Structures are given as C-alpha cells and as structure tokens.
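Second attempt. The first submission of Aspartate aminotransferase family protein had a stray character pasted in from the spreadsheet, which I only caught after the job came back as garbage. Lesson logged: always re-copy from the clean sequence file. Corrected sequence (457 aa) follows.
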Amino acid sequence: MINTAQLLADEAKYCSFGDTVHYVNPPKIFTGCDGSYMYDDAGTPYLDLQMWYSAVNFGYKNKRLEAKMIEQLQELPQVASQYLHPTKIELAKFIAEDAKQKWGHDGRVHFNVGGAQAIEDSLKVVRNASGGKSLMFAFEGGYHGRTLGASSITSSYRYRRRFGHFSDRAQFIPFPYPFRRPKGMTAEEYADQIVREFARKFENEYHAVWDPKTNQCEYAAFYVEPIQGTGGYVVPPPNFFKGLKKVLDDHGVLMVVDEIQMGFWRTGTLWSVENFGIKPDVLVFAKALTNGLNALSGLWAREELINPTVFPPGSTHSTFASNPLGTALGLEVMKMTHEMDFGRQVRESGAYFLEGLKELQKRHKEIGDVDGLGLALRAEICTEDGFTPNKALLDKMVDIGLEGGLEYQGQKRGLVLDVGGYYKNVITFAPSLMISRPEIDEAMVLLDQLLTKAKQA
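This time the job returned cleanly.
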C-alpha cells in the first residue's frame, strides 16, 4: 500500500503544475497496469478507454514488445545519435518503402523524441523547402503540441496566452464538423463549402495570400489532422480532403499530415490519412510507434524536401533521437502489425464498439452524437435536447469513473476516459487495439452505469 495522502502533499509542494497532470482533483495515482486496465494501490481495475492518449495502442505490458525492449537493453541500449545502429536504418526503410508503395513517392524518415519535437522538425523541413516562408495554414480545432512552434499552429489561444505574441501564428481554417454543420446542408455539402471558401483565397492578390503574377503563395504548408484528436475525434466527410489537396497542389502549398494520435492503426489503417485517398507531402508520427515504452517520434517527407542536398546533416538534431531502444521497439511494432490483417481486426472491433455506443445512445438522450473510424470513437455529451454541449455532465462522469466505485459482475471497477472537443463535452475513445469483445461489453455496462450516476449526482 502507498501513502496516497503523503504523495499528493509532496506533489503539491515539489512538482511543477505546468506539465498538465491536473485534469482531476485530486490527481489520480495508479500503481499498476496490464492489457486494457490500470490498477490503483487497492488493486481495483480501471478499464482504460483512452490508453495514454492513444500512445499504448497495443495494450499495457504487451509481452512481445516488452521482450523486444529487454533484448535491446541487453544488446545495445545506448549509442550517441551521431553514430548508426541497425534498427534505425531498418525502421526508416520499413516506413519509407511502405510510403512508396502507397503513394508512389520516394522519401526519407527523420527521427526525434516526441510529437511536438517532430512537428518542430517538420516546420524546419517546410520552411527550408519554401525558401524560408514561415506562415502556415491549420485547422480550427487542430492540436499539434505545446512547444513554441507547435503552439503557433495549434488553434487554442489558451496554449499561447501567457507567452507573448506569436507573429507566425497560423491562419486557421474551419474543419468540417458533421454533427455541428449548418442546418439545411449535408455533411458533404458542408465540406465542399469549406473547400470553396478556402479556394477563394487564391482568386486574386487582394485576398491576401496569393500573388498571381508570380504564382506564389505567402504560406508554406497546411497542417492537418485527418481526424481531429484533441478537437474531439471529429471525422470529416470522405470528400473533404481530396478537394482541399487539389487546391493546395494547384498553388504549390505543401500538406503536412499529423498522425501523432491517429497513426499506427488507430483508425484501421497504418495512417489515418489512408482513409481519405490523398498523398501527403510530409507525415509526422509519434506516440504508439513504441507503444508508450520509449519516447520516439519522427517524420516522413518526400525526397525532394528532405534529401541531404537540401536538408544536410545538422539541420535539426536531438541527443536522444533514433535511440536504439526506441527504434527496436518501433521496428517490432511494424513487424508485429504486418504479420496479419491487423487493420481488419481494428475495423471489426471498432464496428462492434460503435454499435454498443449507438445502443447506449438510445437509452441516454444526453448522448447527442456517436461516430468514429476504426477504434477512434466519439460520444458527444449534451443536455437533454441532444445538441447543447454539456461539459459539466462529462466532468462528473470523468470524476466518478476515477473514483473506482463502479461495479461489473459483482466486482469494483473504475473507468478511465479522455475529454476532448471544441466545448470539452466529447468522450474521445481510444481503447487498446487488442481490446476483446468481453472488454467492450464491460465498457458499455460501465458507461451506462457512469451516465446514470452522473445524471443523479
């Protein structure tokens, strides 16, 4: 048993509150994990439906990946990043060859240690490729990290508010949000309208981004999440990205695809962008590459953007980039998920989970919308009208879930949920991609119980 009260008192005195651990009060302390569950010091299982913001896609304590980490730890755990080691090269080759097969482009892979750091590297790549242009397009509701560069292309002002003026802040474009689209429009019509409005920026020089005399845009790239993560797992209509990519290609603007949260099979494909039939110019990845066992991230970029002539050694660097523990794990993740039709497994589990959410929606009118792709799923919590955002109710649900007082088959249970969305009223479900049917059934029972308790609180 741990002394929770003493630990929380020490945390309050000695730990910075700036590293975003305080989503609930008091913060929850976990002492164990396995598969789809976290455990508190009393041994109570908490079914985790967010898996460390989709970093642990393949389950806690995944035996195959842990064995690979131990093997690498005993063989070559450390090496300075100016030297080479086998798995860095092998992992880069695996990702680059997969991209060539899917998109027809030669490209290279560049590693770093976290999602925001890889975003920073991608900003260097596109600024360098565009002759130093520092302006970017990005989406309202988009999230790309909290470093200074990543904050400039993340739409939430609250991440920038206390750190001075960001002169290179992105121009933010609306994202097609099907549940909250304008009345009288289909989701596809709404997507087409957003593309048309964006295309108007290039009609003439007075729309401020385009010089028709030189055919040059002031903006270097458009940063996109194919499915918005922190924005609430918003799935755009299937026609949206093809229309947007055509506008960008017609005007020489690069598309940088952020797969930090949705990559590595979350949506039933290796990369979520594969669901929308477009080819990225740059793709950024992190999180589940190592199943949360090691901080490793990276980017893939087309050859002409990142070859050594245009992006030479030292263009960007991190001491721990491409560390051997991380690249060995990443390579094992790629091998493990390509030995079978892993995407099919995810899609089938996602369909089963989504059906359960729809049944739950029938019993609780406060669930205004359910949607998803693969095992990236959403439930929008509303007032009884089924539309007005109800952040207060979801906050109660999160708190009750972390109290560990739910019941399943006569045993105590907790439930770990993540909150997202423009109005912080969306449960963003990112369960283990290995989640079983019985665990999904348990999730529905616990969610039903949780909603009932929260409405009564």
